[in-house]
Amino acid sequence: MAKVVLWGSLSRLADGRKEFDIDAPDIGRMLAALGSEAPKLKPILDKGVTVSIDGTLYRLDRFKTIDPDSEVFILPKMAGG
Amino acid sequence: MTHSHVTTTINGDTVDYLCDAEETLLDVLRDRLGMTGAKEGCGTGDCGACTVEMDGRIVCSCLVLGAEADGRSIRTIEGMAKGEELHPLQRHFLEGAALQCGICTPGILVAARALLEKNPNPSETEIRYWLAGNLCRCTGYDKIIRAVQNAAAEMRGESNAA
Amino acid sequence: MPLDHNPDKKDFKVVGHVKTRPDGVDKVTGRAKFGADMFAPGMLHAKILRSPHAHARIKSIDTSKAEALPGVKAVVTAADFPDNPDLLANEELVNIRYNVMARGKVLYDGHAVAAVAAVNPRVARQALKLIEVDYEVLPHVVDVELAMAPGAPILHEDLRTNGEGDEPTNVARTIEIGHGDIDAGFKEADFIVERTFTAGAAHQGYIEPHACLANVSGDGSGEIWCCTQGHFMVRDFCAQICGMEVSKLRVTASEIGGGFGGKTTIFIEPVALALSRKTGRPVKLVMTRDEVFRATGPTASSSTHIKMGCTKDGVITAAYAELHYQGGAFPGAPSDMGAMTAFACYQPKAVKALGWDVVTNRPKQAAYRAPGAPMAAFAVESVVSELAAKIGMDPIDFRLKNAATSGSRSSYGPTYSDIGLVETLEAAKAHPNYSIPLGPNQGRGVASGFWFNFGGQTAVSLNVNIDGSVALSVGTPDIGGSRASMCAMAAEELGIPYENVQTIIADTGSLGYNDVTDGSRVTFASGLATIEAARNAKKVLCARAAKIWGIPEDAVKWEDGCAIPAGPNAGEFPPLSIKELAAQAGETGGPIAGHYEISADGAGPSFATHIVDAEVDRETGRITILRYLIVQDAGKAVSPTYVEGQMQGGAVQGIGWALNEEYIYNDKGLLENPGFLDYRIPVASDLPMIDTQIVEVPNPGHPYGVRGVGETSIVPPLGAVANAVAAATGTRPQELPVSPPRLLKLMKDQPLAAE
Ligand code: FES
Ligand code: FES
C-alpha cells in the first residue's frame, strides 16, 4: 500500500483529503484507483499530472512500478524551456 | 519597379546584379546572390548579425542599400576561409566553443577580423567595445572574447596561444 | 526498463573530453542553413498583418484590394483555419490556433489578423496596407494586479478560474503547494521579513527570428522547413490546425539560431502552410524583429509577495509566497512552477506557496529557460539574504544551514534523491571570488537556484556504415552543441574515436516521435537513448562475431571497439573490429544498426549558486557587473566547455533580466520597445568574464550520471544581482529590472540604510 500525496490545492477536489493509501503496481493503475476514489480528481488526472516516485519525476511513463513503501506525490503537469 | 544595375567586388570576385531601390545589401546578398552567411537578426542595425566589410569598414549590411555597393569592395564570411583552411579566428571559435547556436557567429567573425587587421593586440576592453554592436544571446560573450584573444596571439606569432 | 546504471563510472575516454563539434565548421564559414536560409524554386514570400490595438473586436476584414494588387497570390485569415473535431477536443490547440490567427477579437498589440503571399517581400508588405480591418476598440489590461481586480476588462468571456464558477475572470488557474503548519512556523521565528517584488516580462531574445518555408503539393502532402525546438511538435500541431493527416506532413528542422524555450510552440508555420495550400507554391515566411517582440513569447511578468521567518541561529522556520503571474492573452503562465520552485533550495519546516495564472492583453508567454522559476527565486533569494543580514550571518553559511540535501523533503513535496546544492555552496564559498575585497559603491550578492529538469519522448537510430563509422540520427534539434554530446556518448559506448560518429537531426519522416527540446532535456534524454541504441548495436555486432566464429552469442563481448571472446572457454579468436564486422555485414545478416525509443524520465534536478560583484554609479544609476561566478551541479559534464557555455549564457540572460530587459507598454496597451535598441539585451562591453565551476554529483537516473544543465543557470542571477545592488547601496531593489532610472529613484527614496 503506497501513500499517495496530492499537491495542496488538488485536495480541494478530494473533499480536503491530502493523502490516500493506494494499492497499485504502477503509475497508470494508481491514477485510475485515485480517480475512482475521488471522482472529482479524474478530469485533472486525465489532463496530465507529474508523478513523483521516491523523488524522481515521471511525466509520461504509466507503467513505472510503484513499490508498496514508495513515496508518491501527485504534482502539476510540468514543462521546461 | 525600376532596378539598378550594380557592379561590385565580393570577396575578390567581380559581381553584377540588379536590385530594387529599397533592397538592402543584405537582401541582395541573401536573396539574389544566395550568400546566406550574413544573417538578419533585426534589419535595423541593432544586432550585427548582418555584419560585412565594405571598403575596409565594417557595416551592418541591413542598413546599406544594394545600390550603394556599386564600385565598392565587399568582404563577407563566405570569403574568410581559404579553401579548406580556416582563418585562425574561425579555428579558435571552434576550439574554444565560442559559438552555441552560431547565428551571431558570421557577423562576429567578420567584425573581429576587421579589428585584428587594425589592431593585432587589442586589450579585453577593446575587444568588448569593438564587438558591442554584435549581439550574442547564447554564450554570455566570455568564450567569444577569449577566442578572439587566442586567435590574435596566434596571428602575432605567439606560440603559447592556449 | 533495466538500464545499466553506473554513475560511478569514472574512466571515460571520450565523454568529458570533446574538443570540437560536428556542425562547427559550417557555422564558422557561413554554410550552415538556418530557418531563413532556405529557398525553393517558384517560392512566394509571405507577410502577416498584425493588430494595432491591445484589445478589439474585429467587425470585418476586407482583403479584396490586397488580392487585386499585381503580384499577390493569396490572402488568408482565420476563416482559412476552420474547425475540425480533433482540434476542438484539444483546448490548448484551440488557443494556439487563436494565437496564430485572431478570430473575433484581437487580444494584444501584434496579434495576427491576416497574411499575404506575394512574388516578393516588397509586394507582400504593400498588400498588407491594402487590407481593411474594421475594429471596435475595447478596454484593455496589461498589468497583472489590474487584470485580477474586480471590473477588469475581460479577455475571454468563457474563462473561469480552474474551470469553476459563474463569473467571467482573467484568473485562469490558482495553485497551492506546501506542507507543515505555516502559522506555527512564523510563531517560532525570531525574525520575519515580508516584502513584495515585481519582475518585468523578458523576451528570450534569440537572435534568429522565427522563419519557415512551407510547400504543399497538389496531392495534399506538405513539407515544412523551419527553426524550432521541436519539429515533431510542429508537424503534429500544424497538421491538426490545418486539418491534415499527420503522415502527410514532413517537417525538417533547420539549424536553430537560439530558442531558450521560445521556439517550443508554433506561430507562423500553419500560416505559411495555409498560404502554400492556397497558391500551390512554396511559401517562405520570416518574422521581423518587431514581430518577434510583439507576437512571440516573452516570459510572464510577476508580482510576488514573500514572507519568511528564521530563528536567531539561522534556521528558516516558515516560508510563504503569493505569486501573481500574467502570461499574456492565453492561460499558461507558469505560476505553478514558480510555486514549486520558489523554496526548493531550502527545507523550511512549514512552507506554503500560492500561484495565480492570469491572462492580460499581451502576447502569450512562452517558455524561457526554467520557466516560472527565476522571478520566484529573485524574490526568495532577496529575502533569504536579508534574513541572513538581519541575524548577522554570512549569506552562504545561512544558505548552507538551510540547504536542501539528499534525502531531505523538498518544498514541493517529494524527498530529494542525490542532489548537489551543498556542494555548489561549499565550492562557491571556497572560491577566491568570494574573498576579493570590495571598494566603495560595490556590493557582493549571492543566490542559489533550482530547476527540475525533464526527460521526454525520444527516439534515436544508429547505423554502422560499411567502413565501421557510425551514423546517428536524433530527433531533437541541436540548440547549442548537443550533436557533439551525442557523438561522444555513442563513441564512448562503441569504443571508437569521436571523429568516427556523425550525428544528424533527422526529419519527422525518418524517425519516431521526439518531444520538443528544452534546455535541459537533450543531453539527458537523447543521450540516454543514444547510449541504449549503441548498446543494441553492440549486441548485433557481438552476434555477428559469434556467428563468424561459430560460438554462442553470450561467449562474445565488446571491448574497445572490437568483439572478443568473453572468456578462456569461448575459444581463441583474434578480435574483430567494428570495421571488419561492418565490411562483412551484408554476408553475415544485413546492415548493422541499433535503435532505441523511450519515454525518458528521471532527469534529476540541478542546483547552482552564483556570486556577483556589482558597482553602482550614484550619479547615473548605472550598475556595472565587476565579477561573476557560477557554480553548478552538472551531474556529469559530457562536453565541459559546452556545459560552461550553457551556464554562462543562462547567467548573462539573467543579468539582462535583472538590469535592463522588460516589456514596456504605453497607456493604450501598445508595446513601446519592440526592438533591440530599446529592449536592451547585454552586449559584450556590459560584461566581465563569467567564471564557472562545474560540480559533479552524479544523477542516479542516468547511466553516466548526466543531469540537465541548460536551464538552472538563469534562476539565480536575478536574486544575486539584486542582492549585490542591495549590498552596494543599502537599499533593496524590489522591482526588476533595476534600470538606471529605477535605481536612482530607489536611492533617493530610501537613502543609505545599512542592511
Ligand atoms: S540585421 Fe543588420 S544589424 Fe541586425
Ligand atoms: S551563439 Fe547563439 S547568438 Fe551567439
UniProtKB/TrEMBL annotation, chain A:
<dbReference type="InterPro" id="IPR012675">
    <property type="entry name" value="Beta-grasp_dom_sf"/>
</dbReference>
<dbReference type="InterPro" id="IPR016155">
    <property type="entry name" value="Mopterin_synth/thiamin_S_b"/>
</dbReference>
<protein>
    <submittedName>
        <fullName>MoaD/ThiS family protein</fullName>
    </submittedName>
</protein>
From TrEMBL, chain B:
<dbReference type="InterPro" id="IPR012675">
    <property type="entry name" value="Beta-grasp_dom_sf"/>
</dbReference>
<dbReference type="Pfam" id="PF00111">
    <property type="entry name" value="Fer2"/>
</dbReference>
<keyword id="KW-0408">Iron</keyword>
<feature type="domain" description="2Fe-2S ferredoxin-type">
    <location>
        <begin position="4"/>
        <end position="80"/>
    </location>
</feature>
<dbReference type="InterPro" id="IPR006058">
    <property type="entry name" value="2Fe2S_fd_BS"/>
</dbReference>
<dbReference type="Pfam" id="PF01799">
    <property type="entry name" value="Fer2_2"/>
</dbReference>
<keyword id="KW-0560">Oxidoreductase</keyword>
<dbReference type="InterPro" id="IPR002888">
    <property type="entry name" value="2Fe-2S-bd"/>
</dbReference>
<dbReference type="InterPro" id="IPR036884">
    <property type="entry name" value="2Fe-2S-bd_dom_sf"/>
</dbReference>
<protein>
    <submittedName>
        <fullName>(2Fe-2S)-binding protein</fullName>
    </submittedName>
</protein>
<keyword id="KW-0001">2Fe-2S</keyword>
<dbReference type="GO" id="GO:0051537">
    <property type="term" value="F:2 iron, 2 sulfur cluster binding"/>
</dbReference>
<keyword id="KW-0479">Metal-binding</keyword>
<keyword id="KW-0411">Iron-sulfur</keyword>
<dbReference type="InterPro" id="IPR001041">
    <property type="entry name" value="2Fe-2S_ferredoxin-type"/>
</dbReference>
From TrEMBL, chain C:
<dbReference type="Pfam" id="PF20256">
    <property type="entry name" value="MoCoBD_2"/>
</dbReference>
<dbReference type="GO" id="GO:0005506">
    <property type="term" value="F:iron ion binding"/>
</dbReference>
<feature type="domain" description="Aldehyde oxidase/xanthine dehydrogenase a/b hammerhead">
    <location>
        <begin position="29"/>
        <end position="139"/>
    </location>
</feature>
<dbReference type="Pfam" id="PF02738">
    <property type="entry name" value="MoCoBD_1"/>
</dbReference>
<dbReference type="Pfam" id="PF01315">
    <property type="entry name" value="Ald_Xan_dh_C"/>
</dbReference>
<dbReference type="GO" id="GO:0016491">
    <property type="term" value="F:oxidoreductase activity"/>
</dbReference>
<dbReference type="InterPro" id="IPR008274">
    <property type="entry name" value="AldOxase/xan_DH_MoCoBD1"/>
</dbReference>
<keyword id="KW-0500">Molybdenum</keyword>
<dbReference type="InterPro" id="IPR037165">
    <property type="entry name" value="AldOxase/xan_DH_Mopterin-bd_sf"/>
</dbReference>
<dbReference type="InterPro" id="IPR000674">
    <property type="entry name" value="Ald_Oxase/Xan_DH_a/b"/>
</dbReference>
<protein>
    <submittedName>
        <fullName>Xanthine dehydrogenase family protein molybdopterin-binding subunit</fullName>
    </submittedName>
</protein>
<dbReference type="InterPro" id="IPR046867">
    <property type="entry name" value="AldOxase/xan_DH_MoCoBD2"/>
</dbReference>
<dbReference type="InterPro" id="IPR016208">
    <property type="entry name" value="Ald_Oxase/xanthine_DH-like"/>
</dbReference>
<dbReference type="InterPro" id="IPR036856">
    <property type="entry name" value="Ald_Oxase/Xan_DH_a/b_sf"/>
</dbReference>
<keyword id="KW-0560">Oxidoreductase</keyword>
